[in-house]
Amino acid sequence: MPICISPELPAYHTLSEENIFVMDSDRAAHQDIRPLRVLVLNLMPKKIETECQFLRLLSNTPLQVNVEFLHVSSHISKNTSQNHLATFYRTFSEIQDQYYDGCIITGAPVEHLAFEDVDYWQEICTIMEWTKSHVFSTLHICWAALAGLYYHFDVPKYDLPQKMFGVFPQHVLEPHCQLLRGFNDVFHAPHSRHAEVHREDIEKVPQLKILTESELSGVHIVANKNGRQYFITGHSEYDRDTLKGEYFRDKEKGAEIAVPYGYFPDDDPTKEPHFSWGCSANLLFSNWLNYCVYQQTPYDLTALELYNWDWQAGL
């Protein structure tokens, strides 16, 4: 949360230059407060597991967050009952006239396909376009990050010779970015994907900035400089045992799969995996909710359609 101090205090100017959020007493006295509305477009096969992962992270702030779940209508889920979807999920046609403070678009196990070959691609494009006028800030996770960069900015994805699989060190490139407030210079994040984006393609797009990357796993977090879109190629939401479950699932299928990097102690799958990304995962989502959404979103969400898309949030 922000600190409230006098603008005459010397520290006010110093902290402001570091992009630390401070407010004066006048703004504090006139703040309008309401619950945040966050929409989660869940594309993962094990939807209930994914629901728990994101809800844990979204619950870790003092803010009241009302979370709704969305599924695509152009794809039949094989791993989640239709009763569960009918009870707890909505389709785009049901919410397209509504407005949200934040949206999360999850990963999906379709990186091996060309975007246009994904059976729900057109629906995803419609939803991603809709977020620009009906959502204040959108997180795109893993496949959704690749898809969002491709749809919004024509950034191509590249197939990997083998799965990017494990927990990799990430380097902070923009330490004063609000999304990364309080991060160490190096932190860890899980990855589980068959495709990637390249730095040189992103650097060709003036609206984009790379916030974190790894020498091993490549580009990690990319931001639209207007603060309204974030593209995260990893899975910070993963539980301790998620990669373990994926590894043994693939082994049982007879697939060629390497032991996930930096995950099991001594690379021994019989040992309990390290949970080395929990702090950074909680901080990432707390920062997003507080700095990138709560402190910036309009009180009247219908004003989103009138917002200047080139507005600068000050990454």
UniProtKB/TrEMBL annotation:
Reaction equations catalysed: L-homoserine + acetyl-CoA = O-acetyl-L-homoserine + CoA
Swiss-Prot/TrEMBL site (Important for acyl-CoA specificity) positions: E111
Biological processes annotated in GO: L-methionine biosynthetic process from homoserine via O-succinyl-L-homoserine and cystathionine
The EC number(s) this enzyme carries: 2.3.1.31
UniProt pathway: Amino-acid biosynthesis; L-methionine biosynthesis via de novo pathway; O-acetyl-L-homoserine from L-homoserine: step 1/1
GO CC annotation: cytoplasm
Residues at the site labelled Important for substrate specificity: S192
SUPFAM superfamilies hit by this protein: Class I glutamine amidotransferase-like
Keywords: Acyltransferase, Amino-acid biosynthesis, Cytoplasm, Methionine biosynthesis, Transferase
Subcellular location: Cytoplasm
Database matches in PANTHER family: HOMOSERINE O-SUCCINYLTRANSFERASE
Family matches, as NCBIfam families: metA
Membership in a protein family: Belongs to the MetA family.
Physiological role: Transfers an acetyl group from acetyl-CoA to L-homoserine, forming acetyl-L-homoserine.
Record-given protein name: Homoserine O-acetyltransferase
Gene that specifies this protein: metAA
